[in-house]
Write a structure and sequence with these properties.
This protein is mainly alpha-helical. It has helices at 2-6, 10-19, 21-43, 55-75, 82-110, 121-149, 156-179, 184-191, 226-233, 235-249, 259-285, 295-327, and strands at 47-48, 51-52, 203-204, 223-224. Keywords: Membrane, Transmembrane, Transmembrane helix.
């Protein structure tokens, strides 16, 4: 009884520290905004570049909510530098996610573009603020990823999945910076001293606002840098999910019992994911829509798929041989 009364509540304090309320509150707020934006798309008939004015807040709310929830989950399993990582994530919430989504939502309320908008001094200032927030978010995510590299984890597959997922997510974020550069026509106009209402674009080989895919809003007639941006960004969720899936499959498949095997498969998946992101970026930069791949794109995709499949097959074959040899 004395031990129970005098022992400091270390475990309770640790659980409290690992909750990371700013990230969880951010994820909850993004979920609410996604619902509100969904309702807005049904009741508000205004459009921007052919899309419902509330479509962009909806997409970003879902993406940012996943980012916050995933980061909260990662930070909840730390052993080292928990306080430092807590503050880095808090800065990401306050300096990156909150101002970014606030500007996007504010511009949706006004019924104007949030990105690449230089129509008025206010629009230009807001877009510049979004750019600064994005840079800060990249730096905070990078710092968090570096510190996560040195965390002790019992599961080797997850030990690879987390930092590789963050690295690929950073690469996906970086694709966004390509969109802010003036297009060839815009650069020529700026060189001629013209004042432009729009600087930058996500479309390659055409203008923003053309025919788009349902749900995603990606261009179907031109290259679209947002495809690689989206895929790379969400490696943060994809690779840890692959690690979790392999661990669950290991309960039924003896070949996956070894942690080294699962870790090797995660590395192969990460390399394949990186290849896919690069392929989508290459396709977009050639002005080619995702839905209209040419023979060169299809060939590259086939080679990538074959390489991933062959690597995974080799890993599993070697592990089966080791198990058979061990039993013999």
């Amino acid at each position: 009884m004395t031990n129970l009364l005098t022992r400091p509540p270390v475990d309770q304090e640790a659980r409290h520290d690992r909750l990371h309320r700013p990230l969880l509150l951010c994820a909850a707020g993004m979920a609410v905004l996604a619902v509100v934006s969904g309702i807005g798309m049904m009741v508000d008939g205004r459009t921007v570049l052919g899309e419902a004015v509330w479509f962009k807040p909806f997409k970003f709310a879902v993406s940012f909510g996943l980012y916050a929830a995933t980061l909260a989950w990662m930070l909840g399993r730390l052993q080292r530098w928990r306080r430092t990582l807590w503050w880095l994530a808090a800065v990401a919430v306050l300096g990156f996610l909150t101002p970014e989504i606030a500007v996007i939502t504010f511009q949706a309320v006004r019924g104007v573009r949030s990105h690449f908008n230089f129509s008025t001094p206010l629009d230009a200032t807001l877009f510049a603020a979004m750019g600064g927030a994005a840079y800060l978010g990249w730096l905070m995510t990078f710092a968090i990823g570096v510190l996560l590299l040195f965390q002790r984890r019992l599961d080797k597959a997850m030990a690879w999945a987390v930092p590789l997922g963050i690295a690929l997510s950073l690469a996906g974020m970086s694709v966004g910076y390509l969109m802010t550069s003036p297009t060839a026509d815009q650069a020529e106009a700026l060189n001629n001293g013209l004042k432009l209402a729009t600087i930058g674009a996500h479309s390659v080989g055409g203008l923003d606002g053309g025919t788009t895919m349902p749900l995603t809003g990606w261009a179907t007639e031109t290259g679209d840098l947002r495809v690689a941006h989206f895929v790379g960004l969400h490696a943060l969720q994809a690779l840890p999910l692959i690690a979790i899936g392999l661990r669950l499959l290991a309960r039924r498949l003896p070949t996956l019992h070894a942690e080294t095997t699962r870790a090797a498969l995660v590395i192969v998946a990460a390399l394949g994911y990186a290849g896919l992101t690069g392929l989508l970026l290459w396709q977009a930069q050639r002005g080619q829509a995702l839905t209209q791949p040419d023979s060169l794109t299809l060939t590259a995709a086939g080679v990538l798929l074959a390489a991933v499949a062959a690597s995974a097959t080799i890993i599993l074959t070697v592990q089966r041989a080791r198990r058979s040899h061990g039993r013999a």
